[in-house]
């Protein structure tokens, strides 16, 4: 009777230990997939900031459509290792148009010795897929709008004193207006719509006011 109860207790412990290993393996796989996608997110975010500073091409980075040169699978291996697991596979994937990674891992920890036949020292394997999703779209004038504003400013100058006006007056007006146009271009705000909410970006302070999660989300998918 007592021996039977002890056997059941050890058997339940073996089952619980196996479940712990499986759960730990899935956690490692999830972390590896998310880490790979988050590495891409950082690259898209940095590319967006650089394009905003250059005042061109930021829409491609915002839509996660620009080419990347990073190592998402390297990040996956790093996060798998942090969870005491080895990265077995790592493949770029696309889910409903969203870029991501599917990874497979095997744990370095195991069930240990048990009294259940065939359950000794069993590791766990698990897979996970994570994708990066752009959260924002341009709302209102884009980079071309900045150029239009500059053109409009030039037309207003022509329609003011006119070409035939005094050279001294015209020169003074051109200098001041040119300075204003430059200031206006540098301060041109970028208006975005992010998950139904408005987001306004000041290009001069974009790196200070934004973080990657403002523009992109990283999620696990089936």
Describe the structure concisely for a colleague:
The chain is an alpha+beta fold and 222 residues long.
- Average pLDDT taken over every residue: 79
Count of DSSP strands: 7
Number of helices: 7
Main sheet properties: 4 strands, antiparallel
| Structural class by helix and strand composition | alpha+beta
Fraction of helical residues: 40-55%
Instruction: Detail the poorly predicted runs.
Output: 142-185
Portion of residues in beta strands equals 15-25%
- Rounded to the nearest angstrom, the distance between the terminal CA atoms is 47 Å
Give the strand order of the largest sheet, numbering strands 1, 2, ... along the chain.
1-2-3-7
Q: Secondary-structure element order, as H and E?
A: HHHEEEEHHEEHHE
Rg over CA atoms, rounded to whole Å, is 29 Å
The rough form would be described as elongated
Notes on the protein architecture:
- Helices cover 51% and strands 23% of the residues.
- It is an alpha+beta fold.
- It has a 4-stranded antiparallel sheet.
Please specify the SSE layout and strand pairing.
Blueprint: H1 2-54, H2 58-62, H3 72-82, E1 85-95, E2 98-107, E3 125-134, E4 136-138, H4 143-158, H5 167-186, E5 190-194, E6 197-201, H6 206-209, H7 212-215, E7 216-221
Antiparallel strand pairs: 1-2, 2-3, 3-7, 4-5, 5-6
